[in-house]
Write a structure and sequence with these properties.
alpha/beta, Rossmann fold, five-stranded mixed β-sheet, 52% helix, binds adenosine-5'-diphosphate, binds magnesium ion, binds zinc ion
């Protein structure tokens, strides 16, 4: 351990030295180019003989005679140059006794100077070197001393947090939709910030840190700010990445500075976004290269600050932080008295989405028939930020068509844009490709209509979009689902394979367009078997491996499974996928004319409403019963 430390210390010293040299060289170059250069344009070097003839020619104007060199100004030999130029020439060995009389005769202004030491010019070069040296040494010292006190030169140790006064915060819980549970938990914090004495009197444990946990865009920052708005306290907004710096000690100094500022204006809320940037588990050893001890110091400083504040109960400071990866945080952060309150913020449910859409359509003129409920229904899985984005995009689309109000159609287009990137209508597909995609998507749509437990189709399209999808079938859940039965999952698998089944039914071959479907179906079936215990053969045993955290990504460790079990899993997956694929094929073969009808319409119109699927089936049924009727009539004859 000790050796290690010394080792890293030495290495750091070497790096500082290398950095110093490089930096100094660059600075000297700059200094020479822009400071010394303009002052001293290089003097013209004359041979002594030239010098003597120039005197005779009357070109030399002044001469300063030193022991080694004569310098001065002379008329330019170039007729275009009218100003005097500098010259220099070397003094001959042994005195040139005729020089002074010649100068005198030519009317040159001359003088003598003592030994011109080179120290003057060296000093000039030295100034930047010394300056950088001092600067570098300062930083080096700080790095050794760890968290040095104070802001330091150039404010490197000053926190970059944005301070928002209570009057400026401008958001309250009214501006947050679909987060009622989180809000309920935050009310206690507000009460504490508003009346800390009363809180203490009642004997409640003083809250210090609140960790908001949830995926990006779910309104964590917004909630923290709204908490400050509700409590009418100052809000300090910072992000964990602001504390991550190259120089050891800077991050820690910034943390200290941030809390110092907060204490000055308390009551206040300090918000740290992306807490994982500084709060990662210490000594994980996964970080490659340096920067480890810097982060550790910053984290230690943060812990010290959390432990240290709220000594003055009347002026409380609450620290709020956000992360979407709570599992990587150092356990020390989550200990009692620190971030012991965790508030989950998830993607909003249907009611939440209606609320959020309502909030974000406040300044937007919606058409009379714009149904927020419907807009919320077609956006499951959207985060608050996605919804805000879609609503804004819808307004832009409406403006582009010079409409007076935003319609649900605008919103749908905006939503699809948010989902899958911009529509790329310009992309050219050849006729065969288009036909294949039309049948493929019709296959998904029809199967989902034909199986009992699938969600209804909202839209089928063969318009190519981003992320490589050539078409898409949008299914619209009627409600948010948290639990799914085996039958529903199986039907999902059949729908996923419906595209490929349609291709084989019609063309007898399969295209590469089905690979994504196959992957998804296989993955779902594998999870059904190994995680949800939905296989008769394997029973309710979890076979999925543990989730391992590996350099940020998660992998499955299935090493504890016996080869035999793995074989069974593979064969079960294969069996179920094949069964569902055949099921989809049978369904589509039985409704071939509906499939052709749908694909034909798609080729013509590119995008169809979900109701077209049901209608295609109805048309087919009617045709069939007519035929049957005709046949029975014929039989009677
Ligand atoms: P996070 O911090 O969780 O990534 P933000 O708070 O930065 O998310 O959200 C970004 C924006 O999305 C907000 O400014 C707001 O406009 C919108 N938004 C997100 N969630 C909500 C919500 N629950 N209610 C209203 N607006 C939201
Ligand atoms: Mg945020
Ligand atoms: Zn598909």
């Amino acid at each position: 351990m000790h050796d290690d430390e010394r080792h890293s210390h030495n290495r750091r010293r070497i790096w500082y030295a290398v950095g110093y040299i490089l930096f100094a060289l660059i600075l000297i170059y700059i200094f020479q180019q822009f400071v010394i250069g303009p002052i001293a344009t290089p003097a013209k070097q004359l041979d002594y003989s030239e010098f003597k003839t120039d005197i005779a020619a009357g070109l030399i104007e002044t001469a300063i005679i030193g022991p080694n060199q004569i310098t001065g100004t002379m008329k330019s030999t170039d007729p275009k140059v009218t100003t005097a130029v500098d010259y220099k020439t070397n003094v001959p060995i042994g005195a040139d006794t005729t020089l002074v009389p010649e100068l005198q005769a030519a009317g040159v202004k001359y003088s003598f100077t003592g030994a011109s030491s080179p120290i003057g010019s060296i000093l000039l070069y030295f100034i930047p070197l010394v300056l950088i040296g001092v600067f570098w040494y300062y930083i080096y010292r700080r790095s050794l001393g760890g968290a040095a006190r104070g802001g330091g030169i150039f404010g490197v140790g000053r926190s970059k947090a944005v301070q928002v006064t209570p009057e400026q915060v401008g958001v309250t819980f009214k501006d947050v939709g679909g987060a009622d549970e989180a809000i309920a938990e935050l009310r206690e914090i507000i009460q504490f910030l508003k009346t800390p004495e009363q809180f203490a009197k009642l004997g409640g444990r003083i809250p210090k840190g609140v960790l908001l946990v949830g995926p990006p865009g779910t309104g964590k920052t917004l909630l923290a700010k709204a908490t400050a708005g509700e409590a009418e306290v100052t809000f300090f907004e910072s992000s964990g990445s602001e504390f991550v710096e190259m120089f050891v000690g800077v991050g820690a100094a910034r943390v200290r500075d941030l809390f110092e500022q907060a204490r000055k204006v308390a009551p206040a809320i300090v918000f740290i976004d992306e807490l994982d940037a500084i709060g990662q588990r210490r000594g994980a050893g996964l970080v490659v290269g340096g920067g480890n001890d810097e982060r550790e110091q910053t984290l230690n400083q943060l812990l010290a600050e959390i432990d240290g504040f709220n000594t003055d109960i009347t002026r409380p400071v609450i620290i709020m932080a956000a992360t979407n990866r709570p599992e990587v945080l150092d356990p020390a952060l989550l200990r009692a008295g620190r971030f012991d309150r965790q508030v989950e913020v998830g993607n909003p449910d249907l009611i939440g989405r209606v609320q959020i859409l309502k909030i974000h359509s406040k300044g937007i003129k919606l058409a009379a028939d714009f149904d927020l409920q419907r807009a919320a229904r077609i956006t499951p899985g959207f985060s608050g930020a996605d919804l805000a984005n879609a609503m804004n995009e819808a307004a832009l689309l409406a403006a582009r068509r010079h409409a007076h109000a935003v319609t649900i159609k605008d919103f749908e287009a905006a939503m699809e844009r948010v989902i899958a990137g911009l529509e790329r209508k310009s992309r050219v597909m050849n006729e065969l490709e288009r036909t294949t995609v039309a049948y493929h998507e019709s296959g998904h749509a029809l199967v989902s209509q034909l199986v009992p437990h699938a969600e209804p189709v909202a839209k089928v399209s063969i318009i190519p979009r981003g992320r490589g999808a050539l078409g898409y079938t949008l299914q619209m859940p009627t409600e948010d689902r948290y639990l799914l039965t085996e039958e529903e999952l199986i039907d999902r698998v059949a729908v996923m394979l419906g595209g490929r089944a349609a291709e084989t039914t019609i063309f007898g071959t399969i295209s590469t367009g089905a690979s994504d479907d196959i992957e998804k179906a296989t993955e779902l079936v594998r999870r059904m078997i190994t995680e949800f215990g939905m296989s008769d053969k394997l029973g309710s045993v979890r076979y999925a491996g543990q989730q391992l955290q590996y350099l940020g990504g998660a992998t499955q460790d299935s090493s504890q499974l016996s080869p035999h079990t793995r074989e069974i899993i593979d064969s079960e997956v294969q069996k179920i996928v094949t069964e569902q694929y055949e099921r989809a094929q049978v369904l589509l073969r039985g409704h071939r004319s509906a499939l052709e009808n749908l694909a034909g319409q798609l080729l013509k119109q590119e995008t169809l409403d979900g109701s077209a699927v049901g209608e295609a089936l109805k048309v087919e049924e009617e045709a069939a019963s007519e035929k049957a009727g005709a046949a029975s009539v014929r039989e009677k004859d």
